[in-house]
Recover the amino acids of this structure.
């Protein structure tokens, strides 16, 4: 450990609060997300990732006296312990280095930055595009950055390289410290935009409002624009954000966004992990069974026993054999092919698990149901709160939304009464506690799959708005950190407690024919006891979910000619 919680000696020194120090940046970033969900908004905004000698940490930039920092640590101590996190400690300022990003423009108008985003995305390509974001600053400006999170010198070299590539378009570059600003737009946002408009329209979106150089101490001078040729936009953006299959969107957008679910999948699942089947059985043609019927159409699902389900079972059993999943940990996995309306994986799909923050899209649905019925207004404030609830997993915003609906019991009652064919076993009995230990709310994986299917089919109130919010950039366990190709659209919500690690969402893959192919996936791992090392447990279990997501993608890739 580079820094220790040693006594503070010099009253003139200023100190910050350190929460974690580790050589694994991914573990540190995961830990920061848990802190942001737990701590109040003022402290969350002040969290920063720092580095020293190839190690990383999360600090709260308190810049305060030793006495005040120690008092803050004491106040947070019980909160962190209840959430299963380690105790924080004091660290003298200047004992570490900031991380830096490349920036391309700053301005007060989001639409202008979106237009600049598309131009930079087109020119710099996928590898930069996956970490290209628009952030909102403390001064209510928007800044376009490549979130490199590197040291100052190497980040400056990258900025110079990008400047040469962007020079002909009169786009300037600089570097800016990593400030933990909220992200308002990224790759998934761009992909979601193109599901309802052409790439050319996305590239031309916005106005000509001034965008300035975003460097430290930069003067506010206009960055002149040089037009990108339409064929350049089409070639580059189509490569990354090919428009969604017209037949998917056309058939589903004909339905009203206010309509009730017209068809619901009823999934029956085993009560324990399915035993792997022999290759002879697995390779037989998949058995198709009807699971519900309406006046106009039968809906079909594939019974369990598919090859991908067997592969997931074998992987989980191998982890158990090696002791990499404890004996007290349960897992649940479901995958649903939204294009062909059939089940692919159903392992413990009807078992009840803690919902953690994965309950939040359900709260959003209850909120929008009340908006549809004229009982709640959906304006700028409520939009900000719902975005914070899903993207930043804000517990304060979640509790606000639950209160608008009428409380936990009213939220559960609304979902069961109006969407009972989806939420067959949902339990919402508590607001998110101050400690973040939301252990009482629960749902089975099958409830999430039915919700995601109805969401994709635009059968829920404000389906497209819920999808937009779920597509806002954030760390996930289904796509981020996997070999799934860049330019894949993801709608998701993670969930974490001291006992649970999970993620649920829709993956919209791209085929080699330029079509979009959607499927829903959920993975949860829940233990009955707290892990000794929470940060390591969350990272390793998150990586299990990422591996399962990769197994699913590889299987779908072979069958449907994905990229």
């Amino acid at each position: 450990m580079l820094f220790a919680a040693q006594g503070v000696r010099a009253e003139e020194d200023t100190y910050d609060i350190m929460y974690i120090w580790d050589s694994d940046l991914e573990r540190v970033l995961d830990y920061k997300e848990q802190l942001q969900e737990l701590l109040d908004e003022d402290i969350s905004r002040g969290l920063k990732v720092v580095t020293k000698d190839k190690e990383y940490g999360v600090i709260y930039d308190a810049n305060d006296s030793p006495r005040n920092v120690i008092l803050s640590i004491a106040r947070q101590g019980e909160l962190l312990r209840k959430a299963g996190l380690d105790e924080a400690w004091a660290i003298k300022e200047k004992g570490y280095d900031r991380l830096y990003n490349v920036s391309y423009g700053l301005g007060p108008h989001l639409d202008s930055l979106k237009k600049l985003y598309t131009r930079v995305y087109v020119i710099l390509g996928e590898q930069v595009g996956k970490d290209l974001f628009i952030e909102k600053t403390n001064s209510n400006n928007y800044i376009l950055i490549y979130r490199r999170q590197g040291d100052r010198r190497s980040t400056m070299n990258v900025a110079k390289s990008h400047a040469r590539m962007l020079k002909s378009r009169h786009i300037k570059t600089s570097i800016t410290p990593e400030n933990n600003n909220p992200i308002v737009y990224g790759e998934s946002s761009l992909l979601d935009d193109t599901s309802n408009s052409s790439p050319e329209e996305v590239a031309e979106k916005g106005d000509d409002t001034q965008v300035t150089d975003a460097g430290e101490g930069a003067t506010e001078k206009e960055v002149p624009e040089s037009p990108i040729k339409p064929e350049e936009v089409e070639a580059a953006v189509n490569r990354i954000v090919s428009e969604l299959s017209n037949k998917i969107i056309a058939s589903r957008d004909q339905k009203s966004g206010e309509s009730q679910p017209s068809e619901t999948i009823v999934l029956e699942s085993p009560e324990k992990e399915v035993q792997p089947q022999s290759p002879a059985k697995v390779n037989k043609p998949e058995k198709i069974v009807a699971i519900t019927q309406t006046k106009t159409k039968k809906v079909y699902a594939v019974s369990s026993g598919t090859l991908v389900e067997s592969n997931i079972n074998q992987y989980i059993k191998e982890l158990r054999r090696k002791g990499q999943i404890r004996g007290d940990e349960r897992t649940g996995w479901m995958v649903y092919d939204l294009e062909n309306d059939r089940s692919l994986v159903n392992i413990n799909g009807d078992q009840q698990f803690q919902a953690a923050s994965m309950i939040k899209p359900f709260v959003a649905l209850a909120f929008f149901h009340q908006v549809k019925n004229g009982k709640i207004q959906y304006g700028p404030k409520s939009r900000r709160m719902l975005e914070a609830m899903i993207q930043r997993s804000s517990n304060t915003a979640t509790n606000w939304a639950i209160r608008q609906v009428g409380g936990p019991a009213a939220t559960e009652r609304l979902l069961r009464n109006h969407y009972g064919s989806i939420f067959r076993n949902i339990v919402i009995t508590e607001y998110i506690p101050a400690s973040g230990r939301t252990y009482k709310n629960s749902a089975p994986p099958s409830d999430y799959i039915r919700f995601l299917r109805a969401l994709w089919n635009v059968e829920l109130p404000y389906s497209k708005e819920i999808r937009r919010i779920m597509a806002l950039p954030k760390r996930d366990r289904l796509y981020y950190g996997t070999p799934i190709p860049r330019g894949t659209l993801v709608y998701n919500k993670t969930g974490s407690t001291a006992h649970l690690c999970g993620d649920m969402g829709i993956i919209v893959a791209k085929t080699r024919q330029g079509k979009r192919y959607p499927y829903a996936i959920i993975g949860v791992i829940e233990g009955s006891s707290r892990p000794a090392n929470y940060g390591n447990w969350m990272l390793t279990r998150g990586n299990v979910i990422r591996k399962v997501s990769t197994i699913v993608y590889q299987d779908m890739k072979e069958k449907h000619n994905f990229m």
Q: What stands out?
A: The longest strand covers residues 516-527. The mean pLDDT is 82. DSSP finds 19 helices and 19 strands in the chain. The first helix runs from residue 25 to 38.
